[in-house]
Amino acid sequence: GDWRDYAIDHGVGMAVFSVFRNAEDPPAITIAKCAGAPGASGGYVLFDGRRILKKARTLPGILASLEPALRVVVSNG
User: Fold this and answer.
1) What is the full DSSP assignment across 6-72?
2) Nearest one of 36, 44, 42 to 64, comparing CA atoms
3) In terms of C-beta density within 10 A (0-12 exposed, 13-18 middle, 19 or more buried), how is residue 21 classed?
4) What is the pLDDT of residues 15-52, one digit of tens each?
5) Among 26, 5, 30, which residue's Cα sits nearest to residue 17?
6) Rounded alpha-carbon distances, angstroms, from residue 38 to 9, 13, 22, 41, 45
7) Contacts for 9 with CB less than 8 Å, ≥ 6 apart
8) Which of 16, 36, 70, 72 is such that its CA lies 20 to 30 A from the CA of 1?
């Protein structure tokens, strides 16, 4: 109910998913997938504005830190 809009963006070496309460507001949360060194996988970072809330090697590791009611179902298939 609190999340009403989202955006997907990319930058050099990263993909970003942001969730908004309203389209005019700054993101409520942002999840960034960062590229790793060649041959290595990157990691994920959860942001609240510019503040880093959590870093993890996997997306489920990031999503586990969100409230259970706000979790997204992730499929490996």
Assistant:
1) EEEEEETTEEEEEEESSTTSPPSEEEEEEP-STTS--EEEEEETTEEEEEESSHHHHHTTS-GGG--
2) 44
3) middle
4) 999 999 888 889 989 999 998 766 666 799 999 888 99
5) 30
6) 22, 11, 38, 8, 19
7) 15, 16, 18
8) 16
**Residue 47 identity:** F
Residues in the chain: 77
CB 42 within 8 A of CB 33: yes
User: Which residue type, as a one-letter code, is found at position 26?
Assistant: P
Report the pLDDT averaged over residues 52-64. 89
Amino acid, single-letter form, for residue 41: S
